[in-house]
Write a structure and sequence with these properties.
With 403 residues, the protein is mostly helical. It is 67% helix and 0% strand. It contains 16 helices and no strands. Helix 4 packs antiparallel against helix 5, helix 7 packs across helix 10 and helix 11 runs antiparallel to helix 13. It starts with 12 loop residues before the first helix and ends in a 14-residue tail after the last helix. The N terminus is likely disordered.
Length: 403
Amino acid sequence: MSHDPSPKQTLDNSRVGTFDCSYLLQRVRSAMGPQYRSKNAFETACRSMITLWSALNCSMLENDVYEALLSLWPIFLKQGVVFLASDSPLLCARSLLEPLVISASSTSVKDVASISEANTACIEEIIQLLISELRQRTMTFSSLIPPLGLLQELIGIIELLQEYHLTDSSTTFSSAKIELVDAYNSLIERYSLRFVEDVAFPSYWNLNWGTSSSCFLLNGVHPIIYFCFNSLVGLVEWCGYPIQTVDYMPCRQVVAHVWERSALAIAAVAEEKEISEVRKKQLQVDTMHLVLFARMFRKFLGERLSGVVSSALVRLLETVARHVSLETHKGSSSWSVAAAFETNIWNVPPIEPAEWIQCVRARGGKKTTNAFIPWSEDFIRASHVKAAQNPPEGWQSISFQQL
């Protein structure tokens, strides 16, 4: 009697994937129960659904498992929406949307209409929950620190919604999704409005602009201009640019909104206050510094947001030029004045990523450089700051629209 040492194959390889998928379906049902017991259970069920839809796309599901998945899917979506409503939609929506987007991209679904109907209904409910939470957060927002983490999470959610819109030809980018984007923008505007109107510029607005009495200045500049610059540098540092692998768009948008509103705040002083000759000199120096500092951020902001900020700065320059009519000494041509302004102020070199790295410090570390202290001689654009302290005579006649 001969003995065959090779093991006999006792498992059907084609059934292994089916067994695994059946197990995943059971795990989803167990996690759902009458309701999800925890956020971890909810996220585990969502990950299992991602695996199941991926298996379907790879033709690894047999018909009985496929039918079970389709039967469970609308229940899973409804349970997911219920959980979002009981927790935080902003912090949990991405987990539910990820398997939903994969289901919409599946080419193996036979009953496309029923899946699409369930998906669309779920998405509309998710969006309404997100809008409601965003509006509530916007109304009650009082922090001096922008909610960058939440904004980054929302950016990811919006990108998933856009991906679903592109994948499922039966859907349109509904007004509800546009409303969600508007709610996102409102939260950013709420922060920038609070920073500028409630924190930074009340003291500036409330100066007695009609007198010649002195006020505290730092190198001839009102400290609030430095405060804006330092606060926004700190914000960029906090978000880890350019080292961290995160979406910097929320930070860029916050920075852009703050510079834009700061320009509007100074322009309002020029338009609405009676200003003495001494204060006119201060106002133009403050304006030059704000323009200089804001323009230093243009590489971080990117072309589109930088364009928005630059438009606000042009309006500021035009407004101050109209209302600050100082006596000037003739001698410099208008061309040379414009060239000096463009070279020293408007076209100040933007802060480069390598320079930002100097500003980013390890947790618990200390800054060892004055490169980002604007009143220091070691400031990265010290020569341009000196130019801003002495604006070129006749700068008011520059055609700012041509910058």
